[in-house]
Amino acid sequence: MTEQDKIESRKLFNGIAVIIDDEIAKEDSGIVEIAKQLDEQQIPTLKLSEIPPQPEEFAQNLYGVSILIVDWKFNPLSSADKASGVTLTDTLTAKAESEVIAFIKAVLEKTYCPVFIFSQENTEHINERLREAGLLTDEKKQVRLLIKSKSALLGGKLFSEINEWTDSNLPIYVLKVWEEAARKSKLAMFADLESKHHSWPKVIWDTSRSDHTDPSDELSKTLTNIFANRIAFNCQFEKEQFSGSNGEIPLEDMRAVLEAERYISDIASICKPAPGDLFKVEKDGTVSYLLNIRAQCNLLHSKKLVFEGIA
Predict the structure, then answer these.
(1) How far apart are CA 267 and CA 272, in angstroms?
(2) Nearest partner of 20 among 57, 48, 52, judged by Cα
(3) CA separation (Å) from 17 to 67, 74, 114, 273, 303?
(4) How many CA atoms lie within 13 A of 4 on its CB side?
(5) Where exactly are the structural domains of the chain?
(6) pLDDT in tens, 116-129
(7) Please, how many CA atoms are within 13 Å of residue 78, restricted to the half-sphere of its CB?
(8) 3-state DSSP call for residue 48?
(9) 134 partner at 20 to 30 Å CA-CA among 64, 127, 220, 276?
(10) Tens of pLDDT along the chain (311 residues)?
């Protein structure tokens, strides 16, 4: 792996790493060698030897984690069981795999963090179990899972493998470039505001109140506008990553992406109405569409009132 490869990896995978592997304390294990590659890049790493017992609660606290590495085969036997000669049955193995699957599912649902499954187990077996759990399907590719044998990552190959995967995985590439730009933009934005006034939020809040506008709305819009202006300059995607994507786009693909870009499927997630909002209303078997044509200054900033108005 070249020094340039390492630099590019650090650019796209800033943030702490989490490793969950029952051999993380075993000095001659493959995962320890992989962890050392993270240490060499000065990446802080949380190392756990077992799957968290409450995966959903744990996953909710993974915000900011850049690299999540999970082993596939965990030995559920205690030290006492091993010492007394208890053997690992197929039932115990299946139960341990189910716990890993439940954890991965929780991470995919609660975060948008890539999950790296690094194991010595047969990768086809892992893929089969993930398909059975509905995490891998032929119709919808799961772009956030990278499954690799640990042996393929030894000898300093961790970041080259991650780079190769990222280069061929546009959603993850875009995610990582955008996250890094967002990090830089947020840091610069808050540092700049703090340098202007130590209590700048109160200045904006009180100014909005004196202007008889919604102070919460004004503070939110101020931060959003400043952030949008900064990230527009910091977020730059490389054209080479999109090479070979100049073919004709199927109409159904275009429609699906445009709908995701322009419409919010869950109306309850809308915080404030805006001119141009289009609402789909189903009542008594009839579907109608309502377009918000009110001016921004004449809108009620209450979710309850907005929803009551279109009911």
Answers:
(1) 11
(2) 48
(3) 5, 20, 11, 39, 38
(4) 0
(5) 3-168, 170-247, 263-311
(6) 999 999 999 999 99
(7) 3
(8) strand
(9) 64
(10) 455 544 454 567 888 999 999 999 999 999 999 999 999 999 999 999 999 999 999 999 998 899 999 999 998 655 555 555 555 567 778 889 999 999 999 999 999 889 999 999 999 999 999 999 999 876 567 789 999 999 999 999 999 999 889 888 899 999 999 999 999 999 999 999 999 999 999 999 999 999 988 999 899 999 999 999 999 999 999 888 887 656 678 888 888 887 777 666 665 555 566 777 777 788 888 988 888 887 766 655 554 444 444 44
Q: Rounding to the nearest 10 degrees, give the CA dihedral for residues 48, 152, 63, 59.
A: -50
* CATH classification number, 3-168, choose in 3.30.230.70, 3.40.50.2300, 3.40.50.620, 3.30.70.3270: 3.40.50.2300
Residue with token string 């208890």: 86
d(CA 28, CA 144): 29
In angstroms, the CA 80 to CA 20 distance is 22
CA distance 175 to 166: 10
How far is it between the farthest Cα atoms of the chain? 77
How many other CB atoms are there within 10 angstroms of residue 72's CB atom? Answer: 22
The alpha carbon dihedral of 61, 144, 6, 118 has a sign of positive
Give dist(CA 274, CA 217) in Å, integer: 12
226's CB contacts (< 8 A; 6+ apart) are 189, 193
- Establish how many alpha carbons lie within 13 A of residue 224's alpha carbon, considering only the half-sphere containing its beta carbon: 6
